[in-house]
Design a protein that fits this description.
Blueprint lengths: L2 H13 E5 L2 E4 L6 H15 L6 E5 L4 H11 L2 E8 L9 E7 L5 E7 L8 E9 L3 H12 L3 E11 L4 H7 L4 E9 L6 E2 L6
Parallel strand pairs: 3-4, 3-7, 7-8, 8-9
Antiparallel strand pairs: 1-2, 4-6, 5-6, 9-10
Helix pairs in contact: 2-3
């Protein structure tokens, strides 16, 4: 297990609160600048050979990791905003719908200036659960006539359907940490040697 994965694993185990068997909160994770930078740089190393031209995330927690990844690659990044349904009227937006894990339908919006036809886009996000957020971002990329070249996830809930859905569509997915279970209020993290 490499040093970044060890550090991230340790941080999750020491600083998380299990909300229920499907959800956990990682306390103050997004304040750990050096760790965020290392994750962004790792994703840059993973996706560099795919020749991305843009990094895309969704507000808010994925923003610093996406920014560090883009900085390392020397490319631009942007993020989709979340809005309540029909809360916008600007025609210069590309929109999609995200059906969140809390069973809410949320519009996600990206400026048309952010993604250009032919862009090679990597999606970076903090968590992967059902895969709905990535699906919404993928639809935005497709609407812009750009190409999704990969998805980088910090923490994947591998007991949920998101990863299988993405991989079944041929999406290149890389998750730094895979949580196998939150049953019995225990965080069970998959050992990378099990793969």
């Amino acid at each position: 297990m490499d040093d970044l994965v060890k550090e991230l694993r340790k941080y999750i185990l020491e600083n998380s609160k299990i909300i229920n068997r499907d959800d956990l909160r990682v306390n103050n994770f997004w304040m750990k600048t050096k760790l965020l930078n290392r994750m962004g740089e790792r994703f840059a190393e993973i996706f560099e050979k795919d020749d991305p031209s843009k990094i895309l995330t969704i507000e808010t927690s994925g923003i610093p990791i996406a920014a560090f990844c883009a900085l390392k690659l020397g490319i631009d990044f942007g993020f989709a905003r979340k809005h309540k349904r029909n809360a916008y009227g600007n025609e210069d937006l590309i929109t999609s719908v995200w059906a969140s894990d809390m069973r809410k339908q949320i519009d996600i919006l990206v400026s048309k200036e952010l993604i250009n036809r032919g862009d090679r886009v990597v999606i970076i996000d903090d968590f992967l659960s059902s895969g709905e957020a990535v699906k919404g971002l993928s639809e935005i990329i497709k609407s812009a006539k750009a190409n999704l070249v990969g998805v980088g996830i910090c923490i994947e809930k591998s007991f949920k359907t998101g990863a299988k859905r993405l991989e079944s569509k041929g999406v290149k997915l890389h998750s730094l940490i895979k949580i196998e279970s939150l049953d019995n209020e225990i965080i069970k993290i998959k050992d990378e040697n099990d793969e």
